Each structure stands twice: as structure tokens, then as C-alpha cells.
UniProtKB/TrEMBL annotation:
Gene Ontology annotations of biological process type: sphingolipid metabolic process
Pfam families (UniProt xref): CERK_C, DAGK_cat
Signal peptide: none
GO molecular function, one term: lipid kinase activity
Domain DAGKc residue range list: 93-242
UniProt organism field: Cyprinus carpio (Common carp)
Any one annotated GO CC term: membrane
Name of the protein this chain belongs to: Ceramide kinase-like
PANTHER family tied to this protein: CERAMIDE KINASE-LIKE PROTEIN, SPHINGOSINE KINASE
Length: 454
């Protein structure tokens, strides 16, 4: 079959030492007839031969590499071109048509430019049709995914950061449940998304992209999509009061939720500035939440004061956490990591946050508990707590840092998106519910992860 085909040729531009090399067709993603044209000339021109475009791997990076095969015979080139095209169209995971969502306001508003510069030319080269939507507001991609026709597409692509990725992933999964007629109560068994999702990282946080690419680069992401590299990943569902709220990859409660809620209230600040401001301010007013955590299995229960709780279905790699925010989980082994940071002093807590950038023993603190879980129920108890907690009085500035919003909800950071939850939240993991374009970074050779973090 096509996959086993070896393509042997002599490199034309080595005059002296004609050297034999081979390229496997499974690494080739496009073929073009090469002609010499004068500037501005659109058709015709002197035939030079054919050009193969190969996807080359260098560390975590994927790059395109052109191989020119010189031949002046129209007949030969035509035969080669046609046969190669036929072989290339036989690779079954490679998409021919994509639905693309671009979030034009993510990070420094560079998403559309990244798409135009680094991605669109590669899609065109690979003869992939892209139906592009530049989203106008939050929720726009979700509303399109709920009722657009997906049949003609082989994949969905999101150009943006974690918030945009989460919205598109949620949209794809919600759509799959609607198509399957699933009632999304809190105990339903979800069906898999119909199409794989490709992520072009262009946000201020890109932990999902980095978990499947290991690197924040448009070209690498585009080539994973073009080559049809499939990576199934586990997904969480978040339900409250018996109803599904959304699908996602990670959740943070306590410090992580509050920091985001505070940053959201300062939307007028530039993104990096407001994140830093929120982080420092939340640290200064470090709050202890009382909560019950129930873990699945035979539902073990914990009750106590916690500073920060993370529940993550994927490792969430980023530069400040080279092994991930949740190094103790895998992309698709059917479990989530529960990391609960108990009460401690501010300085110990800061020490813990800094330890994320180490590669060993990130959670080696007596106040941190880690568990591998299938489901978690989290029930916060924080009303009126500050007044009772005499020792913490000076840290409890409820005027500047409301613990709960005026609506009586609790702030959760779900994939960098603020979700206000009124009561107990049930988080369940669903093994391999979504397929992403990418690879398992655990199996990749060690290389520094270059992605921005939460
Ligand atoms: C705590 O909060 C920080 C900052 O929001 C976040 O990066 C981290 O993953 C959270 N989780 C734990 C368990 O500390
Ligand atoms: C998934 O992988 C993590 C890390 O290796 C491990 O601790 C956990 O037990 C695994 N989960 C399952 C269900 O095998
Ligand atoms: C929480 O930790 C702080 C700092 O170590 C301590 O002062 C406080 O008493 C603790 N609160 C409880 C209820 O254990
Ligand atoms: C952790 O961060 C510090 C300061 O930014 C840096 O010097 C150190 O090399 C980092 N360690 C790792 C393992 O990345």
C-alpha cells in the first residue's frame, strides 16, 4: 500500500557527488508541477519538473521541506504528478476540508495574522479547503457549531488560546450529544465528537496546544493537521444541579478561580498586566476556602481548608511548568489528576507555585495532596468565613476581594474561562472523548516546552 512505498531518486543539485537518498511518501504532504514563470505570470511557463513537499521533524518542530525533481518531459511529469497525487489522497486521516475558527482578539490580536502567514499557505499547498470564521464575540464559535453542517468537513480548527480552544471543544462535543439525542443530565454517558480538532496556538495561555504539540508554533500545529496526526485525549464534563454546564480539560478552584475572576474585573488593563496584577493581588489576599471534596471510586471525602485545587484531564504543559500543571496524569489514560493545596502560610504557598517549574517533586509539600481520580464533587463552604477566622483577619479584605460574587456563585477557572457556579460542581472524566491533531508529548524526545502558562 501507499504507506510502505519508498521513493528513491538522485538529488539533482548535487553535481559532483550524486548521492542517493530516499523519502517516505508517508512524510510527503503535497506535490506540485514546477515551472519557470516571469514575475506576474499566472499560467504556462517552462516546465522544470515536479516538487514534493515533505514534513520534516526536528525535535518538537515540524517543518516543510521542498524536494525538486528536475525533468523536462511534460508526459513524465504529468504521470508522476497524477500518481503521487493519488497516493497522497489515499492517506485516510489527512483532512481535505476544514472548518476554521479564528479568535481575532486573543493575546496580542495576532491570531488572524498567524493564520494568514503560517497556516493558510500550507493548507493551500496541501489542497485543503478552509471555511474560515473570524469570531465576533465570545460564544460565536459555539453558536455556529451547534447548527452548522459538519458533514462536508474532515476537521475543525481553532486559532486562539485556551479559552477559544475550550469553547470550540465544548461546541464540538455538545453538538455530538445533540446529534445523538443525548439528554445531558449529570450522569449521562457522552458520545465522541464527530470530527478531530486542530489547534493553532495564538493565545496568552496555550496549555492544550502545548500538551499535544510541545511547542507554541503555527507551522508545527498546521503540519500536525495536514499530516493527519491524531491524538485522542480525555475530556472532563462539568455539571451542577443535575445539568451539564460544559465540557473542558482543566478546572481550578480557589486561588486559580479567584485570580481569573479578579483579572476579568480589570478587563480594561492589557492582558499580561491584568494577569500579573490579579496574581499579586490574590496572593496578597490569600483566602482559605472550606470545602468538601469527594473523590470517586467509593467516593472518598475530604473536608477542610484549601487554598487552591486543580482537576486536570491532560498534563497542561507550559514553559513555567515543563512537566505540566498536572504532571501526574496522561493525555488519554482515562483518569484526571486532583491536586489539592491545603492550608499553609503565604510563603509556603508561593514556594509551591514556584516549584511548578522544576522537573521533579513538584508536589513534595506536606500540605499538598494528589490523587488519580475518575470523578470529583466539590462543595464549597465559604460564606461568613472571614469574620470567624481571627488569625486571617488582616488578609481578608472582602471589599476588594469578594469571596463569592453578589449572585452567590463561586468563581471557577475552567480552561482559562471564568465560570460562575452556584453550588456543588461535579467533574467527571470521559476517556478519549475528543481527538486532537497532534502527538503524545510523553513519547516525544525531551525538549524544552516553549509555551506561555497560566
Ligand atoms: C493554583 O493556582 C495557580 C495560579 O492560578 C495555577 O497555575 C495552579 O495550577 C493552581 N493549582 C494548584 C494545585 O496549585
Ligand atoms: C494515568 O497515568 C498516571 C501517571 O502515570 C498514573 O498515576 C495514573 O494511575 C494513570 N491512570 C490510570 C487509570 O491508569
Ligand atoms: C491556616 O494557615 C495559616 C498560616 O500557616 C495559620 O495561621 C492558620 O491558623 C491556619 N488556619 C487553620 C484554620 O488551620
Ligand atoms: C525555574 O525558574 C528559575 C527562575 O525563573 C530558573 O532560573 C530555573 O532555571 C527554572 N528551572 C527549570 C527547571 O526550568
Amino acid at each position: 500500500m501507499a504507506f510502505k512505498c519508498l521513493f528513491v531518486f538522485a538529488l539533482a543539485d548535487h553535481d559532483v557527488k550524486r548521492q542517493e537518498e530516499y523519502v517516505e511518501l508517508k512524510d510527503v504532504f503535497a506535490v506540485k508541477v514546477k515551472r519557470r514563470r516571469s514575475a506576474g505570470q499566472q499560467t504556462g511557463g517552462t516546465l522544470l519538473g515536479i516538487t514534493l513537499f515533505q514534513c520534516k521533524k526536528k525535535g518538537l518542530k515540524l517543518k516543510e521541506h521542498a524536494i525538486h525533481l528536475n525533468n523536462l518531459s511534460e508526459d513524465h511529469c504529468e504521470i508522476w504528478f497524477k500518481s503521487l497525487k493519488e497516493i497522497l489522497s489515499g492517506f485516510k486521516n489527512r483532512p481535505k476540508s476544514l472548518k476554521v475558527f479564528v479568535n481575532p482578539i486573543s493575546h496580542k490580536k495576532e491570531a488572524y495574522q498567524i493564520y494568514l502567514d503560517e497556516v493558510a499557505p500550507l493548507f493551500k499547498l496541501a489542497d485543503i479547503e478552509a471555511d474560515v470564521t473570524i469570531t465576533k464575540r465570545k460564544g460565536h464559535a459555539l453558536s455556529i457549531l451547534k447548527d452548522c453542517s459538519l458533514e462536508e468537513h474532515d476537521g475543525v480548527v481553532c486559532v486562539g488560546g485556551d479559552g477559544s480552544v475550550a469553547e470550540v471543544a465544548h461546541g464540538l462535543l455538545l453538538r455530538a450529544q445533540m446529534d445523538a439525542g443525548r439528554d445531558t443530565d449529570s450522569i449521562f454517558t457522552p458520545v465522541q465528537a464527530a470530527l478531530p480538532l486542530g489547534i493553532i496556538p495564538a493565545g496568552s495561555t496555550n496549555v492544550v496546544a502545548c500538551s499535544v504539540h510541545g511547542i507554541r508554533r503555527g507551522m508545527t500545529a498546521a503540519l500536525h493537521i495536514i499530516m493527519g496526526h491524531h491524538q485522542p485525549v480525555d475530556v472532563c464534563s462539568f455539571s451542577s444541579m443535575g445539568r451539564l454546564l460544559r465540557f473542558g480539560f482543566s478546572a481550578m478552584f480557589g486561588f486559580g478561580g479567584r485570580t481569573l475572576a479578579l483579572a476579568e474585573r480589570h478587563r480594561w488593563m492589557p492582558p499580561s498586566q491584568r494577569r500579573e496584577f490579579a496574581l499579586i493581588k490574590t496572593l496578597a489576599n490569600l483566602n482559605r476556602d472550606g470545602e468538601d471534596i469527594c473523590e470517586h471510586g467509593s467516593w472518598q471525602t475530604r473536608q477542610g481548608l484549601y487554598l487552591n485545587i486543580s482537576i486536570m484531564a491532560i498534563p497542561c504543559l507550559c514553559s513555567t511548568a515543563p512537566r505540566g500543571l498536572a504532571p501526574n496524569t496522561r493525555l488519554n489514560n482515562g483518569s484526571m489528576a486532583l491536586i489539592a493545596v491545603g492550608n499553609t502560610s503565604r510563603s509556603e504557598f508561593i514556594k509551591h507555585l514556584k516549584r511548578y517549574n522544576s522537573t521533579t517533586n513538584q508536589f513534595g509539600f506536606s500540605f499538598i495532596e494528589t490523587q488519580t481520580v475518575k470523578a470529583v464533587k466539590l462543595r464549597p463552604h465559604s460564606q461568613g468565613r472571614c469574620a470567624d477566622d481571627v488569625s486571617e483577619n488582616e488578609e481578608c479584605n472582602t471589599k476588594t476581594m469578594p469571596i463569592i460574587s453578589s449572585e452567590g456563585t463561586y468563581p471557577w477557572n475552567i480552561d482559562a474561562d471564568l465560570l460562575e457556579v452556584p453550588s456543588e460542581l461535579l467533574i467527571r472524566v470521559h476517556p478519549q472523548l475528543l481527538t486532537l491533531f497532534g502527538a503524545d508529548m510523553e513519547e516525544a524526545e525531551e525538549a524544552p516546552v516553549k509555551c506561555s502558562c497560566i
